[in-house]
Amino acid sequence: MKSKSQKTAELKEAExxxxxxxxxxxxxxxxxxxxxxxxxxxxVGGAGASMLVLKKRLLNVLFKEKGIDxxxxxxxxxxxxxxxxxxxxxxSGAVYKFFNSLGGTDxxxxxxxxxxxxxxxxxxxxxFADAKLIxxxxxxxxxxxxxxxxxxxxxxxxxxFMHILNEKSKKSE
Length: 173
Hints:
Layout: H1 4-19, E1 23-28, H2 34-46, E2 49-53, H3 56-66, E3 79-84, H4 88-102, H5 107-114, E4 117-122, E5 127-130, H6 131-139, H7 143-172
Antiparallel strand pairs: 1-3, 1-4, 2-3, 4-5
Helix pairs in contact: 2-4, 4-5, 4-6
């Protein structure tokens, strides 16, 4: 059992992370090995986020102090909180990628692993995002890939036109 000073220190750490965050993602880390948990921390760290495991009661105290309308006790399993500086959409990709990889190649195992994503909270909009929305954001391509696709759509007609002109010039020779 942790002492009151240890709990206070954990609460201060969580408060510091919350001040620097734009969004929170809640995950279930039950039956996830410690090595996999370290990998999750590394992956969300690469997305500009950090993960903290805090008792639900302490998390509720923090939420109440900051005016966040989320009850951590609604989640039945062990709760890990990912604090994101870059917004809900950016960190969702890293979280989804991690849990999707836990299932291996079996579709049923992947579906079970993705169910470990419990939801999120956008601190800027002050609204809760359910697990389906987090998974949806996680499946979206990165910004660079999406911009490349849009650019490809703009360039495709020009490329086709250039190909037609090139073939016409070959026939006329």
